[in-house]
Amino acid sequence: MQLASTIRGTRYAFGSVKEVLAKANPPKSGDDLAGVSARDAVERVAARAVLADLTLRELRENPVVPYERDELTRLVEDELDDQAYRAVAHLTVGQFREWLLDIETTGPTLRAVAPGLTPEMAAAVSKLMSNFDLMTVGSKCQVVVRANNTLGLPGRLSSRCQPNHPTDDVEGILASAREGLSYGCGDAVIGINPATDTAHSTAEILRAIDDLLKRNAVPTQHCVLSHVTVQMKALELGCPMDLMFQSVAGTEDANKAFGISAALLDDAWALMKQKGTAKGPNRMYFETGQGSALSSQAHHGADQVTIEARAYGLARRYKPFLVNTVVGFIGPEYLEDGPQISRAALEDHFMGKLLGLPMGCDACFTYHASMTQDELESLKVLLGTAGCTFLMSLPVGDDIMLNYQSTSFHDIPTLRRLLNKRATPEFDAWMDERGIWRGDGPGPKFGDVSAVR
Amino acid sequence: MSSLREELGSSDPLPPVPALPPIPPPPARVYSPRPEKSGFAAEAARHTTALVGIGHVGTRYATDVVLQFQAELAVAHAAVSAELPDAWAEQHGFIGLRSRVTSHREFLLRPDLGRRLDEASLELVRTRCQRGVDVQIIVADGLSAVACMQTGKALHDAVAAACTARGLTVGTPVAARFARVWLEDEIGQEVGAKVAMILLGERPGLGTGDGLSAYVVFEPKLGKTDGDRNMISNIHQRGIVPDDAAARLAALAQAMIAQRCSGVTLDLGRLGEVTGGRGYRAPQVRQRLVGS
Question: Could you tell me if residue B43 is inside a domain?
Answer without folding.
Answer: no
